[in-house]
Design brief:
By secondary structure, the chain is mainly beta. The chain has 1 helix and 19 strands. It has one helix at 183-188; strands at 2-20, 29-47, 51-52, 56-73, 80-83, 88-91, 97-101, 103-106, 113-116, 132-133, 142-148, 153-163, 166-176, 179-182, 230-232, 235-246, 260-274, 287-288, 297-305.
Length: 306
């Protein structure tokens, strides 16, 4: 068995940040070396040699990382900064978080969407059912959602195995507590605004009369760009599958042209489980719009060595 564990505490200082400036300066922002970010965590790598002989072997493995992020300093004495056009905020003492108006749901009596009113400190998530509004204001309603931009827990596991020339390898990757803004869905749940776009089936669950407990507001209103678009993009994916057979040298006969030969099947991204409704939860981004997903691939091959 091979076991490796590493604990770390890394502080990145003088980061390259686009610092905003008043337009009267002639610039909207200037890239500067400012601020600091702390990452604390653990890396674990474990490999087992369960069976190993001249005819068979079975070697499973697992690796993962847990990381805790904290912003320790910003710029210009700021305690927080909402990064423009990204949906994320940086606040001292907290990790990078998604920052949006938080949706409460559709009012059953009016058919209008409601949002939680933020508190005085917008870096603290506030969801008070007695303090909501149906008047949309993206700036006034913005607050920390409490959802981290970067997943704290990632890793993979799998095994390699073989028996008398037959080999079988499989690997998985996972990402826990990952969130991403599904920008595509904004266009697919807005039939009033984007009538020329195909709409999701669940858009039919819209408010029609008083008393309806619906997911979407009454027709003629807009589904705004709010926390409802932030989806849980945690996933488990079969990343790699390989199975094949090393043809015995005696089967190659007396010819000296081929030294060895094998036949195999290779598959990639064959299976994924996730709650994310977009094309691919593995995309490393705060916002996904029209991304090219990882594709499923299958390859049958023959490998010959001369």
């Amino acid at each position: 068995m091979n076991f490796n564990i590493e604990f770390y505490k890394r502080v990145t200082e003088n980061m390259l940040v686009s610092v905003p400036y008043p337009y009267t300066s002639g610039f909207s922002d200037i890239t500067s070396n400012v601020g600091s970010l702390q990452n604390t965590g653990v890396d674990v790598d474990l490999v087992f040699n369960v069976f190993k002989s001249s005819t068979y072997y079975f070697t499973p493995y697992i690796n993962f990382n847990y990381n805790k992020q904290k912003i320790t300093e910003l710029f210009q004495g700021k305690s927080y900064w909402i990064v423009p056009n990204t949906g994320v905020s940086w606040a001292v003492g907290k990790p990078v978080e998604f920052f949006y108006p938080i949706q409460k749901g559709v009012n059953p009596q009016t058919g209008l969407m409601e949002w939680y009113v933020p508190g005085e400190d917008i870096t603290v998530t506030r969801k008070d059912d007695s303090d909501v509004t149906s008047t949309w204001n993206s700036t006034a309603l913005a607050q920390s959602t409490g959802l981290k931009r970067y997943s704290p827990f990632v890793g993979g596991f799998g095994f390699s195995s073989g028996y008398k020339g037959i080999f079988f390898d499989m690997s998985f990757v996972f990402n826990k507590d990952k969130y991403m803004i599904n920008n595509d869905r904004y266009f697919f749940v807005n039939p009033y605004n984007f009538a020329g776009y195909n709409q999701l089936k669940d858009v039919m669950d819209y408010w029609k009369q008083p008393g309806d407990n619906a997911r979407y507001p009454k027709y003629g209103t807009v589904n705004q760009f709010d926390s409802a678009l932030i989806e849980d993009a945690s996933f488990l994916r079969m990343k790699h599958l390989r199975v094949g057979y090393d043809i015995p040298k005696k089967w190659l006969g007396v010819q000296n042209f081929f030294r060895s030969a094998k036949i195999y099947y290779l598959g990639r991204n064959l299976w994924t489980t996730t709650k994310y409704s977009g094309p691919d939860p593995e995309v490393d981004s705060n916002l996904a719009l029209g991304v090219n997903p990882n594709t499923k691939q299958s390859v049958f091959g023959i490998e010959l060595q001369f």
